[in-house]
Task: inverse folding
């Protein structure tokens, strides 16, 4: 068994869906689970619609829904020649349900309403893909992810109940594959990013959560491998928008990938790797446009982890230095006080360093959280800070051309371990 995940870009228009179908059709002799995201930028649009809904701007919400419906209908026109195809009815019905839902005033729980509205993107996308596969004679069964992935009620960032999920996934999907073992390549289609509570309410797993869905299904079904189809060649050692000469990381270990995701590489949703690591299921990242190319593979092999340096750039950083007002040493009770403030406000520390008289912390600047943090700490400590900084993380820096990266940036703080170099820098162009 194998799991394929197609992200928003790989189903953003009719040609992309045709390409995804071609890739699905190339899989022979193995049961396949297809996980799809919402089409193109649909999730962003639905997020805006939820906001308008909460602001009581029904006209605005309806107008954006009209646009979104048009986009999906046009995409479907490009796939289904017969205008009488049931897909058009299904799209109309999904949007009708959304228009209808927005007529009622929203409930008090924003995150609950968010999941109700935003989940429509994956629902519609998966129905279109499933119908199109059928049209191309790739027989498949569509599942509602809310019946497969069982979560708690932490709407918008729901936590998976692994035992219940494993039970429901296996009891639903395995019999389908068994019953259809005459078909050379039975296919299941479901939505990424979505789950459901035991009460049957829809939940979402956090933005970009479709990779995670693929991993959950791979884990519970003990898949042979999970493949994420992307609009890039695979895992690159830097964001090509920032560094021009990127290298493809052909094979890295789960641990290396977890480190990269932890430091802020955005290519794989960070939660994705743990379930795969637990059952040693390889994760492939392959090019959607060149499906025959190998792409990248993440597995237990770590021999190539240090073949290339990887660069991760995080912007909008704040560097805060904290000094006891009486010039006493930074002792453990100070640290415990400072950490509890960060934990209370939910601010993730990206890097920290202490000296005898001060403690420095680098974190993502946030319009709401940063002022609240400063206000609290100011009561007890002297504070000095810089904002609008960049945090540069270089894994396997011994092979990196550091001068090129630095290019007249000013280093405010440096930290080095055996494998990782981090700099907090002031960018002269920006500041
Ligand atoms: N559609 C969701 C998002 O854009 C989930 C995903 O694409 O992974 O965040
Ligand atoms: Mg995505």
Result:
């Amino acid at each position: 068994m194998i799991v394929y995940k197609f992200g928003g870009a790989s189903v953003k228009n009719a040609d992309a869906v045709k390409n995804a179908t071609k890739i699905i059709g190339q899989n022979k002799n193995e049961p396949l689970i297809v996980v799809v995201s919402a089409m193109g930028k649909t999730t962003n649009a639905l997020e805006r619609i939820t906001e308008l809904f909460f602001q009581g701007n029904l006209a605005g919400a309806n107008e954006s829904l009209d646009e979104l419906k048009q986009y999906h209908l046009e995409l479907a026109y490009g796939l289904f020649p017969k205008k009488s195809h049931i897909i058009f009815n299904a799209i109309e019905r999904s949007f009708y349900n959304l228009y209808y839902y927005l007529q009622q005033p929203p409930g008090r729980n924003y995150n609950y309403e968010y999941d109700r509205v935003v989940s429509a993107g994956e629902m519609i996308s998966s129905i279109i893909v499933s119908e199109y596969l059928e049209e191309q004679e790739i027989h498949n069964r569509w599942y509602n992810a809310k019946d497969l992935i069982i979560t708690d009620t932490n709407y918008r960032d729901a936590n998976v109940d692994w035992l219940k999920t494993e039970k429901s996934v296996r009891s639903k999907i395995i019999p389908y594959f068994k019953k259809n073992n005459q078909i050379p390549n039975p296919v299941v289609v479901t939505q990424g990013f979505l789950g459901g509570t035991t009460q049957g309410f829809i939940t979402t797993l956090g933005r970009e959560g479709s990779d995670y869905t693929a991993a959950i299904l791979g884990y519970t079904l003990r898949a042979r491998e999970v493949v994420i189809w992307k609009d890039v060649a695979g895992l690159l050692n830097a964001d090509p928008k920032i560094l021009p000469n990127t290298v493809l990381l052909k094979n890295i270990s789960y641990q290396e990938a977890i480190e990269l995701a932890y430091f802020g590489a955005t290519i794989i949703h960070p939660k994705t790797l743990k379930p795969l690591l637990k059952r040693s299921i390889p994760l492939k990242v392959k090019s959607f446009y060149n499906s025959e190319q190998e792409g990248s593979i993440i597995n237990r092999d770590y021999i190539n982890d240090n073949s290339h340096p990887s660069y991760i750039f995080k912007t909008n950083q704040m560097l805060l230095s904290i000094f006891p007002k009486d010039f006493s040493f930074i002792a453990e009770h100070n640290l415990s006080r400072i950490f509890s403030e960060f934990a209370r406000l939910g601010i993730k520390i990206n890097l920290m360093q202490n000296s005898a008289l001060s403690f420095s912390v680098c974190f993502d600047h946030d319009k709401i959280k940063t002022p609240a943090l400063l206000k609290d700490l100011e009561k007890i400590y002297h504070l000095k800070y810089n904002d609008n900084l960049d945090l540069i993380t270089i894994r396997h820096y011994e092979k990196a051309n550091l001068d090129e990266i630095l290019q007249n940036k000013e280093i405010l703080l440096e930290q080095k371990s055996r494998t990782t170099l981090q700099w907090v820098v002031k960018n002269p162009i920006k500041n």
Q: What stands out?
A: Residues 7-8, 37-38, 43, 121, 192-193, 207-210 surround aspartic acid (ligand 1) (CB under 6 Å). The chain has two domains: 2-231, 310-426. Residues 2-231 form a domain with the Carbamate kinase fold (CATH 3.40.1160.10). The mean pLDDT is 94.
